Amino acid sequence: MKKKLVAMLIVSxxxxxxxxxxxxxxxxxxxxxxxxxxxxxxxxxxxxxxxMTTTDTSDKEIITPSLTIKSSHSFQPxxxxxxxxxxxxxxxxIEDAKNGLHEKDTxxxxxxxxxxxxxxxxxxxxxxxxxxxxxxxxxxxxSNIDRVESKNFVTFSTSSQKKAYLVYKDTTLNETIEExxxxxxxxxxxxxxxxxxxxxxxxFNVKKEFIGFVNKxxxxxxxxxxxxxQHFLQYINITQPGKTTYQNFNFxxxxxxxxxxxxxxxxxxxxxxxxxTTYLSIFNKDNKxxxxxxxxxTKVADGxxxxxxxxxxxxxxxxxxxxxxxxxxxxxxxxxxxxxNKTLYAKGIYYHFNGSRYLSLYDNNNxxxxxxxxxxxxxxxxxxxxxxxxNKFITIKSxxxxxxxxxxxxxxxxxxxxxxxxxxxxGIYYHFNGNKYLSVYDSKGxxxxxxxQKATTTTKGPEGSYxxxxxxxxxxxxxxxxxxxxxxxxxxxxxNYKNQTLYAKGIYHHYNGDSYYxxxxxxxxxxxYVNKNGVTLADGRQGIYHSYWKNVTFSSNxxxxxxxxxWKQQNTSFKISGKTLMARGxxxxxxxxxxxxxxxxxxxxxxxxxxxxxxxxxxxxxxxQESLLAVHQVVQQKILDSAxxxxxxxxxxxxxxxxxxxxIKYRDNHFVVSLSGKGVGMDNVTLxxxxxxxxxxxxxxxxxxxxxxIPKLNSGKKYVALTFDDGPNPNTTPQLLTILxxxxxxxxxxxxxxxxxxNPNIAxxxxxxxxxxxxxxxxxxxxxxxxxxxxxxxxxxxxxxIYYATGKLxxxxxxxxxxxxxxxxxxxxxxxxxxxxxxxxxxxRNPYMINNVVSNNIHNGAIILMHDIHQPTINSVSxxxxxxxxxxxxxxxxxxxxEMQDRPLNxxxxxxxxxxx
Length: 917
Known about the structure:
Elements: E1 38-41, E2 79-83, E3 89-91, H1 94-99, E4 104-105, E5 113-122, E6 125-131, E7 137-141, E8 145-146, E9 148-149, E10 153-156, E11 167-168, E12 176-177, E13 185-195, E14 198-204, E15 210-215, E16 221-222, E17 230-238, E18 244-246, E19 253-256, E20 264-272, E21 278-283, E22 289-294, E23 298-300, E24 308-317, E25 323-325, E26 332-335, E27 343-351, E28 357-362, E29 368-373, E30 377-379, E31 388-396, E32 402-404, E33 411-414, E34 422-430, E35 436-441, E36 447-452, E37 456-458, E38 467-475, E39 481-483, E40 490-493, E41 501-509, E42 515-520, E43 526-531, E44 535-537, E45 546-553, E46 561-562, E47 580-588, E48 594-600, E49 603-609, H2 618-621, H3 625-642, H4 646-654, E50 664-667, E51 670-674, E52 684-687, H5 689-692, E53 718-725, H6 732-743, E54 748-751, H7 753-758, H8 760-768, E55 772-775, H9 788-806, H10 822-828, E56 832-833, E57 837-838, H11 841-844, H12 847-857, E58 862-867, H13 871-886, E59 889-891, H14 894-897, E60 906-910, E61 913-916
Helix pairs in contact: 3-4, 4-9, 6-13, 8-9, 9-10, 12-13
C-alpha cells in the first residue's frame, strides 16, 4: 500500500555521528495513520522531538526535506537479535537503506548476536539500527534479524538447577556472570534469539536493566512473574505484625500477620518473584494453606517447634500427667508431677507447628528442666507463684518465723505470738525460692499474713495438731460430750466417767478457740476427746480429792493403809476390819481403784482401797438362771457399746456362752465383768448398779445408786400395753408412729429381721421415738418346728438387724404364731412376750371389729396383739387409744408393764399372768 508522507522528524547523532532519517516512536511497533508518513523511531520517551509537515490528500508532489537522526538512544528495555543469513545486505545509514544505496554484504556479520538500538519505518519498510559485539554498526531490514518477543520468566535457584548456569554478560557470549549473583532470582525474558542452532534468552530485572543471556536449554521458563515454584520444606515463624499474606500473585489480600505473629508454619514452597521479593507458600498443621508471605517477614526455625522467643514469666505446673520434654523429638525428662504446683521460671516459649506452645523451664538454681506444653502451666503474678486454694487447718509449731504482709517481705507479725495455736490456711503459694507460703486466717476471718509452711503443722481438721500433754485429769462434770472425732460424732459423755481419773496423753488447741484432751483409761484404751473445761487437772495418778464425809464400815484387813500414793504404808498395826470410820474424801485412782481418806475422829488414818468396805454375795444378787441370762443380755449390750467397731465382734458377742457369776466382781462401786478369752477385743466391761438393777435382786443394791432403774407402777391405776407385730412396713408403720406421737403413747414393736433389713431407717425411727423394739424372728417361721441351730440363726440374724438399725439389741421376743415350748425358750434365752387380747386384725381387716374385740376383752395389765402392716389396724389405733383413755387406762411398754423385771425362760401373757417354761 502506498502512503503519502505527512511528517518528518529531524533527529541527530545515530550510531556515533551517522546522519539518518528517523520515524516517529510507536513503542517499537509500526503506526498506521490515514495519511502516509515516514517516521523515525527511537525508544526515548522523554527526549522525543517531532517536526511535522502536513500536506493535503491530493496528488501533489511530496517534498522531503533533509532528516537528521538523533542517536545514542536505545530501546527501553534493550533489544537483541541475531543477523540471519538469507543472502541479504545491510547499510551504513538510514538514508542508504531508504534509497537502497551502498549495500553491504551480511555474510561478514551473519549469525552474530547484536544489540538493536533503533527501529525505523519508511514507505512500509522497517529497519533496525544495530551494534555488534565488536562495535560494528549498521542499518538492516528487520526481516534479517532473528528474534522472538517473550513474556516469560526464568528463575535461577539451587532447587531447580539441572546444570551449571552460564549467563553471559553481553553479546560476545564470552564472559559469564557468577552464579552467586543470579541464584534465587527471577528475571523477565525479553526475547529469544537463535544462533548456531542454540537459542538464547535475554534476561532483565525488575528495573528493566539488562542482565545477560542464557541458553534456553539450561533453564525452565514460566509465564508467572513469581517465577518457578521452588521446594522449600522448612518450618518458619512469622516475625513481623501488620504485614500482609496474599491470596495470589495478583497480590489480593488474604490476611494480616497480626493473627499469625510468632506462630510456626510449614513453608512448602518458595517463589523468587521477578519484582525482587521472595515469597513463601505456608501451611498450618492441618495442611491448610495460609497464603503467600514475604520471606523477610519470617524466620526459618530449627524444626517444628519454631524459634525460641523470650518469655520471662513465672509459672506453676498444674497438670501432673504432662510430660516435661528433653527435646522436640519428645524424649521425656519426666512428668510434671515432679514439680506439681511449684513455681518455675519460663525463660522462653516456642510456638510449635502442632498448634501448642511450649515453655522452656528453669528452676531457682537456673537449671534447665525441659519443655512443657503451656496448657500444663499457669502464669503467676510474681515469684511467689499463683494462689492455690488450700483450706486446711494448721498449727504454729515454731517460734522462729515471720508473718509477711506481702512477698516484698514486709514484716507483719512473728510466729512466737501464735505458738501452738490452730488457724485456717485458706491458700498456699509455691514460691520460686523453693519454699511454700500459707495465707493464714483466724476463726473470726481475720487475715494474719503469709508464713513459711515450715513453721506450721498441717492438721486433718480444725482440731489442730496433736501435742503431747501427759497429765492426769479427773472428770468433774456430767454434761460434757466425749467425742469420737472432730466431726463431733458423740462417743460418750463425761457422765459415764464422773469422778474417774483418766490420762490425757495429748491436747488439741482447736480452731474454735477451745482445747481438747485425748483421754485414755488405765488399760491404754482411748476414750475420746473432751473439752478441757469438762475435767480438772490432777496432781498425779490418784486424781483429785472428792469430798465424801460418810461413815464406812470395813469388812476386811487384807487391804493396806497408805501414807501417800507413792504406796508407802502408813500403819501396819492398825486393824481396820469391823471398824466404822469417817471417809472424809475419796480418790478415784487411775489404776481403776478408789481410795478413801479415812479418819478416826479427827485423827487421819490414811488412804485405803474402797473394796475393803463392801462386798456382794453374787449368789444372792443373781439368784437364778433367768436373772443370770438377763445380766448376760446387759453385758452383751455393754460390750457392743464399748467396742470401736461393733460389726467386727457382733457375731462373737451373740454366740458368746452365758457368763458365770464368778466372772463378776464388785470394785469401786461398779460391777466388773471379766471377758478374758471371750474374743471380743476387751478384757472386761464395767456396769453400774443402775445398769444391772433390772436383771438382779435390786433390793440388795443401794437405793440411791439405782434410782429410776425400776419404774414403779401405781397399784391404783390401770395399765395396758399396745404391741405390734410383723413390721416395720414402709407405708403403714410411719403412719402409726405419727398417731402414737400425737397421742403421746409408747408402744412395743416386735419386728421381723428381714423387714428391718429392708427398712432400717423406719426401725430406727421407732426406737428413737422411745418405743420398745423386740424380736419376732427373721423370716416368721414356727420355731417349735426348727432345730436349735435353726432357731439360733433366726434369732441372731434378727438381733443383728435390729442392732445395726437402732444400736440396741432386743431384750424380748414374740414367737411367731405364739408357738413356744421349753426347748424354744431355752434356745432363745429371752423373755417370750405373748398376749392376752388378740384383735385378729389380720383376719377382720376392719377397724370397727378390731376395736370391738379390744372393748369386749380389755382388762388391767392387758397385752394387746396387733399388726402394724395392715392399714385397717392403723386406722383403728387412734379410736382405740381414745376409748381406753376414757376408761382410765394408761399406756406403757412391755418392759414398763413388768417394771423391767421380765426374765428369760418365762412367757408373759399379761401383767398378772406368766408362765415358766
